[in-house]
Design a protein that fits this description.
Length: about 280
């Protein structure tokens, strides 16, 4: 019989998040050698990574960091909320966002190929997470933004890590307004900074839908044009940040709040887990 104690099993479980039986089997196979047992669990876990590739990852967290005038954010996904709220998964998110702040890669593919400070690629770190946590782990979104940065992370449940995150790049430093606007974006989910960014084909599609809807509602033919344009104006206001009524003062638009602070929004990113 291999020479190991209950404390060795506990230590191995804490280090790998593997089940008690798996830890005992690994220690038996390793003849009590702790380091070898860790390696055995990781290898067996990695063998299961390909089996997990088709699974859905609708849970997870959003994590972000700001250093100077650079902000980074990523969405890290897993299969269950049980793993999402665990210390090891949250620590993995912190490790990855720290790496993102170092390498500043603007897309997922290049970030996965980037090296961490430990010399591993981000993909290798993710694969190890797959192995030790026993679930499919993946990075769905990353963002890098420059300029004075506003940051807001929102928890949708007190026992889960942040599920919504927003980064806002400002033209001029305005810390309080930057956070307030980021919070507004988290709540109202605009798609674009202003109406000029709304793609023409998207507007035309909305115009077509509005016209068909108005006809189906039996609106007078003579009034169709005015009705459709009114609905298009409403749509543009809905998706354009600057034209939205400000969350903390609905009598003013976001544009007015920014003007009063003497700044402007250059860009923003909004992530919500699973979307």
């Amino acid at each position: 019989m291999a020479n190991y104690t209950a404390d060795d099993v506990k230590r191995l479980r804490e280090a790998t998040a593997a089940g008690m039986l798996d830890c005992k089997k690994a220690l038996d196979e390793a003849e009590g050698d702790y380091d070898k047992a860790v390696e055995i669990i990781r290898v067996k876990g990695l063998k299961g990574v390909t089996k997990r590739e088709g699974r859905l990852t609708s849970n997870g967290l959003v994590v972000a960091k700001v250093s100077g005038e650079t902000g980074v954010m990523l969405e890290l996904n897993c299969e269950t909320d049980f793993v999402a709220k665990g210390e090891r998964f949250i620590a993995l998110g912190d490790e990855l966002v720290t790496t993102l702040l170092e390498v500043k890669t603007p897309d997922v593919a290049s970030f996965l190929a980037a090296k961490t400070s430990a010399g591993k690629t981000v993909q290798e770190v993710i694969d190890e997470g797959n192995a030790t946590l026993g679930e499919k782990i993946e990075i769905r979104n990353v963002a890098v933004i420059n300029g004075p940065v506003g940051l807001y992370l929102h928890k949708t449940s007190p026992d889960l890590p942040p599920q919504v995150g927003v980064l806002v790049a400002l033209a001029k430093e305005a810390a309080e307004v930057g956070r307030d606007v980021a919070q507004h974006i988290a709540a109202f989910a605009p798609k674009f900074v202003n109406r000029d960014e709304v793609p023409a084909d998207l507007i035309e599609n909305e115009r077509r839908v509005a016209e068909e809807t108005a006809k189906a509602e039996g609106k007078p033919e003579a009034a169709l044009s005015k009705i459709v344009e009114g609905r298009i104006t409403g749509f543009v206001k809905e998706v354009s940040l600057l034209e939205q009524a400000f969350a903390k003062d609905a009598k003013k638009t976001v544009q007015q709040i920014l003007d009063e602070a003497g700044t402007a929004v250059k860009a923003f990113h909004r992530f919500r887990v699973g979307q």
